[in-house]
Amino acid sequence: MNExxxxxxxxxxxxxxxxELRRLIPPDRRDHCFLxxxxxDQESRQFLQGKNLQQEHFDELVKRCDAARVRITTxxxxxxxxxxxxxxxxxxxxxxxxxxxxxxFKQVFPEGTWSISLVELSLIVPFQPNVDIAYADKQGxxxxxPRNLLSAVRLCFPYGKPTTLAINFDQAQKAIxxxxxxxxxxxxxFNWGQQDTQGPFVVSMYINAGPNIVQVSRYRGRYFLSxxxxxxxxxxxxxxxxxxxxxxxxxxxxxxxxxxxGFFSESVLMAPRPPLFPDFGDEVLGITVPIxxxxxxxxxxxxxxxxxx
Length: 309
Prior knowledge:
Blueprint: E1 9-10, E2 13-16, H1 18-24, E3 30-34, H2 41-49, H3 55-73, E4 84-86, H4 90-100, H5 103-108, E5 115-120, E6 124-126, E7 130-132, H6 133-137, H7 149-156, E8 163-170, E9 175-180, E10 186-194, E11 201-208, E12 215-219, E13 222-227, H8 229-238, E14 242-249, H9 266-269, E15 287-291, E16 296-300
Parallel strand pairs: 2-8, 6-13, 12-14
Antiparallel strand pairs: 1-2, 3-7, 3-15, 4-5, 5-14, 8-9, 9-16, 10-11, 12-13
């Protein structure tokens, strides 16, 4: 915020008020597609019990989970790797370069650690067990067309699209709360010092959501979707068989981003038949559960206390 309480614009980040964020995240429940069949019966029941569902709806979802687990036992083991193609079209490469030449991109993705590729969607492994269907349906434009690679690139490598953040100041706690839809929102740096010898000591924190690019990580012959679940879901529904993405090699599973709370366990991801992204579109494996949308929150609060010197 500036001194007049207005918006502060820094790069592509737009600081908006809470009302704008509420507009993007409806207060009512939305349908999310979950791959609950890859959980045990106890795990899926515990998950559903925390969603305040009516008993009739709860019982129906439990039956669907049972059916999904039976279906998974009949699936063939994952064999082979997805097809990976280079992107050669000059117009498409120029569009991607608008993003990859940015300083914030180079800071997060050093040269030599990634490539830009088309990866076959059907063999990509998701470690996130759910997709917000309503949010995914709003991704991209109506012009998305499997015969137009540029339309997919503009979705997967967005350029100049602002990230909406809400900022609230808690006077009593002397705290600032920053929230947004992008789950990669985080504190990325600090700065401190005095403006002059008589002025106050100033501490600054830099908060950023990072380049919001569709990312795939290769680990032990498997290709994990590290970022871009809703956009990939939208591309799948639009008929795309390959997705343009930033492809990286990972030396361990943690480097893919797969070990965060709430994601599939390593035993599930490395099982003979792990979850595959098209499972979200399967009538048996993709189970629709109405839950509230979420947002990422970063709260900054200085604590003042006395301690023995």
